[in-house]
Each structure stands twice: as C-alpha cells, then as structure tokens.
Amino acid sequence: MSRASGPRSGDAIFASVERVNAELFTLTYGAIVRQLLTDLEEVEEVNKQLDQMGYNIGIRLIDEFLAKSNVSRCVDFKETADMIAKVGFKMFLGVTASVTNWDADGTCCSIVLEDNPLVDFVELPDTCQGLYYCNILSGVIRGALEMVSMKTEVTWTRDMLRGDDAFELQVKLLKQVPEEYPYKDDD
Amino acid sequence: MGREVSESCIDSLVTEMVFSFCNRFYADKSDLAARRIEAIGYQVGHQLSERYTMERPRFSDHLEAIKFICKDFWSEVFKKQIDNLKTNHRGTFVLQDNRFRWLSRMSVEPSLETGQEGENKATEAMSMHLYFPCGIIRGALSNLGIPCAVSADISNLPACSFVIRIKA
C-alpha cells in the first residue's frame, strides 16, 4: 500500500480486520469489573486499576492503530482528537464518536460516544456509586497518546450509566513532547 | 450476527487481564491469580451459555450438551468448531481444538528465551491464559446443569485439548 494514499477511513479498516462477537468482549469486561469490585472493595481503587489496565492496552494498541490507519504521526492535537473519534473508536469498537467543546487554545476537547459496546446489558447497582465503569477507555486513550508524545489527562464528564444522555470524555493536552528523531535522516 | 468488535479488543483485554492478575494484583500468588482468572471465565461462560440456549429445548443428556459446546458455542466464541471429541463414556470428555485461537495469537517468543527456564516460563504464561477458557467451559456447562472440572493440555501445540470431567 502506498504511503501517499493518506489515512484510511474507520469504516474501511473495521470492515477489513478480524472481528468477533461483541458479547464475548462485553461480558468479559463486565466479569473483570465485577471481580475487581469483589477483590479491591474500594470503588476508587477499581477506577484506578481499570484506568491502569487501559493505559497498558493503549501503549500497545497505538502501533496497530498507526499501522492499519496509515495516519502519519505529525498531526496537531485537533487532528489527533478527530482521528481517535472517527478512526480509533470505529476500527476497534465499531462505533463512531464525535469531537466537541473545544477550548479557545485548542488543547482541550470532548469526545462524545452515544453508542458504547462496553455497556450493553450493564446496569449498575446502587453499591457501585462512584464507579467509572468504562474507565478502561480513558486509560487506553491516555496510553495511546503518550506513545505519540502527547501527555494528556482524560476524565469522564458524562456517563450513561449514571443517567446522562451520552458518554463524554474530556481530553486535555497537558504537554506535547516534541518528536525525537533517534536516527539521522539519510543524507 | 449481532454487534461485532475488532478481535484486537478481546485479545488485548484478555492479555491485560491475565497480566494484571498475575503480576499486579496477585504477584507471587499464582494459585490465587489462577483462581480469579478462572472465575472470570466461569462468569462469562455461564452468561454466554444462558444467551445461546435461550430458545432451545433442554439437552437430553451430557453428550448432547457437550456437542453443543463443541459446535454452536465454540463457533460463536472462536469462529470455528472443536476439531475432535473423545470420551471414555464414564464422564470424561476431551475436546481438541487443532489451532486454538487464543494461543496462536499469544506473543510468547520462545526464541528470545532459550533453555529449560525460558521454556518453563513460556509454558507457565500459557497455562495462566488457559484458566480463562477453562473457566468459560465450566461456566457454560454449569449453566446447563452439568457440574464439572475442566483442565487444558497443551502438549501438542498449537493444538489445545480441554479435558472435562463431569462430577457424578
């Protein structure tokens, strides 16, 4: 495939990758959350561990994202957010997200998700108040962006499991480390 | 076919789950980690089996239920059927998958770790992973009213055999 062909659409990538029954994924995630709630007891700690698991996944998943999407690394934060929403969510989870609520200097925005396979068949009991059930997703984004030199803070501002009308992740760019080139360009 | 996600999602999630339980939550307590991973699988298998059998008459005997696991259940979860089924007709069933998906995609690189120790490590990591599908099978059968114990045999990689012992 030629590099000049530009980024591929999320739909095209999702259609071409190996896919599995989402139930297996959704139920596995649910069972993990439940086990963590039993083992760790504190909801805060569960939030933290889900985020950490997501981070570990994100730092590995970014390679697959870059390879399959044909996206070049040299994009600003605005393009990056768009890529996550339109290509990233689509190629892995099969859903599209939208980007809104940009701040004036373009370093903070919201990724809004109206359809989220992680929460199919999920209802939280009252004992789980304070749980950010989908916290693995924020971790994935944080981890993936860190691998392309963007240090971010990702927080949930809306959560359908808490009665909101959508899932909204606020992504704030804290620091952008300039790309380092460990190898000299060819002369 | 209902909703789908990319296979990387489930691969990444299972890999990270096994890693977290073995190296973070229960580091140096591998039997506890194994039990947790199996329990997560059990829950998943129980729920999946519930969903897949909703509109189906009850199975008349153990063999019928095992055949359902080999065909329909395995196809839903792994997109292929079990390749070989053996039984001693006394409650033990051996289900062989000639190319078990979750092992064929595992990133164990034996070339990097040579010698007996490296091999042991790789085998240990694999067996940790296998507690998850073992739990899934046990959960699925338990939902069908069949209590059993499930273990995995990987002496013929990339084939994997699941040994089901039904409790009398």
UniProtKB/TrEMBL annotation, chain A:
Keywords: Endoplasmic reticulum, ER-Golgi transport, Golgi apparatus, Transport. It is found in: Endoplasmic reticulum; Golgi apparatus, cis-Golgi network. It comes from the Eukaryota. One of its GO terms (cellular component) is TRAPP complex. GO terms for biological process: Golgi vesicle transport. Gene3D superfamilies: Trafficking protein particle complex subunit 3 (3.30.1380.20). Belongs to the TRAPP small subunits family. BET3 subfamily. Homodimer. May play a role in vesicular transport from endoplasmic reticulum to Golgi. This is Trafficking protein particle complex subunit. The gene is LOC115736177.
TrEMBL record, chain B:
GO terms for cellular component: cis-Golgi network; trans-Golgi network; TRAPP complex. It holds the Pfam family TRAPP. Signal peptide: none annotated. It comes from the Eukaryota. GO terms for biological process: endoplasmic reticulum to Golgi vesicle-mediated transport. InterPro entries: NO_sig/Golgi_transp_ligand-bd, TRAPP_component, TRAPPC6/Trs33. Belongs to the TRAPP small subunits family. BET3 subfamily. This is Trafficking protein particle complex subunit 6B. It comes from Rhodamnia argentea.
